[in-house]
């Protein structure tokens, strides 16, 4: 614990995942203690950021109301100064790559979603898509050609056999899949991750990884847990994230973030 307290003294910015970290994904519950956390961090001069697989459309009003300093969205592919709306970094899929992914998924009889910076479209909106994406983004429009007129930062697989999808050799060195739901996986650039997005913020601020802390729970936080100086996993986290964590805290419903920051003497 002494080593953790020492690391905590170096923290100047903290990034938070949204789903099952700041708020419960299925019920949308977010404890009042989260507002207290952001107010106290702001008062101490510690910056905050949201690091999420969601795009800006998925950053719900109650999270925006926390007034974070940065958004690291779409698993690090789109980074924005939340106060000025200045784009700090973006990593767009080339059109030819999108078309290769579509061809593969069609051959595998999987539907898909396009993720733009602040919008999403699906190839087919059915019960499978509604079950996977609905709790995060609500109902979405169908548009299989959305990529032709919009920058695409990420795609999602949508199928009832998602666990059987295997990237072909022609794509395996360009993209990777990160499962986030039984019926859906994020399709991200081979070198894309929340860690890269957060690194862009640190470079802007002239900070080191040792100055950064993060809270998360799922596999799309994996690289971030390897990168940050101090990483905290929620009690309900994926086993791999629990193993990587420097500290494990309670669930959202039990004020896990507040408890961790108090235990580590970051806030009173």
UniProtKB/TrEMBL annotation:
Gene3D superfamilies assigned to the protein according to its UniProt record, in alphabetical order: 3.30.1240.10, HAD superfamily/HAD-like
Does the keyword section mention Repressor? no
Q: Which GO terms describe its cellular component?
A: cytosol
A single MF term (Gene Ontology): magnesium ion binding
Pfam families xrefs? Hydrolase_3
Q: Which InterPro entries is this protein grouped with?
A: Cof, HAD-like_sf, HAD-SF_hydro_IIB, HAD_sf
PANTHER family the UniProt entry points to = PHOSPHATASE YKRA-RELATED, PHOSPHOSERINE PHOSPHATASE
* Protein name, entry field: Cof-type HAD-IIB family hydrolase
Organism annotation: Lactococcus allomyrinae
């Amino acid at each position: 614990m002494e080593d953790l307290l020492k690391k905590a003294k170096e923290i100047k910015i903290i990034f938070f995942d949204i789903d099952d970290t700041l708020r419960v994904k299925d019920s949308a519950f977010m404890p009042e203690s989260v507002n207290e956390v952001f107010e106290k961090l702001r008062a101490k001069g510690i910056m905050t950021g949201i690091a999420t697989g969601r795009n800006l459309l998925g950053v719900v009003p109650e999270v925006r109301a926390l007034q974070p300093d940065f958004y690291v969205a779409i698993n690090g592919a789109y980074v924005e100064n939340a106060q000025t709306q200045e784009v700090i970094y973006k990593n767009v899929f080339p059109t030819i790559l999108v078309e290769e992914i579509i061809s593969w998924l069609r051959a595998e009889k999987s539907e898909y979603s396009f993720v733009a910076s602040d919008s999403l479209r699906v190839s087919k909106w059915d019960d499978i898509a509604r079950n996977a994406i609905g709790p995060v983004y609500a109902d979405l429009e169908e548009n299989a050609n959305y990529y032709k007129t919009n920058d695409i930062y990420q795609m999602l697989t949508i199928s009832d056999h998602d666990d059987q999808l295997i990237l072909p050799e022609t794509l395996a060195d360009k993209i990777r899949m990160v499962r986030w739901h039984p019926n859906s996986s994020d399709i991200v650039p081979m070198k894309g991750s929340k860690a890269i997005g957060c690194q862009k913020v640190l470079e802007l601020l002239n900070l080191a990884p040792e100055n950064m802390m993060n809270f998360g729970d799922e596999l799309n936080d994996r690289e971030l847990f390897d990168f940050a100086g101090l990483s905290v996993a929620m009690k309900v986290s994926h086993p791999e994230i629990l193993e990587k964590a420097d500290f494990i805290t309670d669930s959202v419903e039990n004020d896990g973030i507040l408890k961790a920051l108090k235990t580590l003497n970051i806030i009173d």
